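User: Assemble these into one structure.

Assistant: Restating your components, then the assembled model:
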Amino acid sequence: MVDPKETINIENVVASTGIGQELDLQSVAMDLEGADYDPEQFPGLVYRTQEPKSAALIFRSGKIVCTGAKSTDDVHESLRIVFDKLRDLNIQVDEDPEIVVQNIVTSADLGRNLNLNAIAIGLGLENIEYEPEQFPGLVYRLDDPDVVALLFGSGKLVITGGKQPEDAEEAVDRIVSRLEELGLLDG
Amino acid sequence: RLRKWQERIRTKDAGERNLQFALSEIDRMASALGVPRSVREVASVIYRRALNEDLIRGRSIEGVATSCLYAACRQEGIPRSLEEVSDVSRVDQKEIGRTYRYVAQELSLKMEPVDPKQYVPRFASDLNLSEEVQSKANEIIDETAEKGLLSGKSPTGYAAAAIYAASLLCNEKKTQREVADVAQVTEVTIRNRYQEQIEAIGVR
DNA sequence: GCTTTAAAAAGTAACAT
DNA sequence: ATGTTACTTTACAAAGC
């Protein structure tokens, strides 16, 4: 039917950056609308952006983690908003802070059902974990792109751990060819 | 000299005591679960291997011991669910599951997915169901699994639904609640698995 | 190791209706 | 009996316990 690569959809992008300045989270929490800060529970201050939708974790060191965005462009847009909000509070923020993508979560569809039992036994000696009593997905750790895939009986999958969108495409190709050469694609 | 000597004896004694504790725990839990002595021996062997491979560092002896017993039951073809095992352990289910996956991975235990049929004799016996019902349940499991219905489903819920369906087909009806209780799954799970299994084999 | 954030997959569970 | 919400798994950064 369709090339599984065409079904790939980015669901979440995690990135880190920093404003190059230490922060007094207590005062930021006071002035920033919608900020959640509970140092007893977690050292970071949580700030959510609406458009693009994301959550930023702001730390005392000035380092920031952005998660929830649907693309790397959205990560940049969300962080631009966060930077400007901090500047509105008279906080010095570096000109163009380096933003590093740490993880990209994608979903895809192989287009046919999978016999996870057969795959677990067939690829049993590889980096596979399938414990349906604990989780319905089969965990497949790849070496070449260094990502982890969760395969489901429906043929849908989740790929996480990648740093570039291409990692997911490569992973899907490798998974499909691996299952094909072992005759495990539907059976 | 003497101090070093005593220290060695101390650690050796401590290690020996820990091993004894682990083995006695395996024995206690195995008895509580009603599994044969052969399973305890397999569990002990796995535990000693884990000990030799230094897998216990950073983990509780109880957790590793329980995980070894869980793995041993599966290897011997008489699985106990994580919930059943956690019922006789002081370690919680989540920790047992995590430790089991870690130990199985590190020791390269070639664990195959649990076959739901392996739960049929015990569950059916607990429900006082006939041999006929058991055969029917096994038949349902094989037939529906072959059609791909098993992927991703928990073995206990799958077995429970097949037993429930078989009890109806053989006129030895048990309620969903009764079957759910022995399998330790919810009625909702039995209902869902039962519906798709029946649909797959066709009502008769 | 834990804590928090986000998101998907599919199964199971708890609690409400 | 059905519906809603929530938790299971994967990856990752941050600071601190």
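Residues 94, 97, 187-188, 191 of chain B lie near DNA strand D (CB under 10 Å from a C1').
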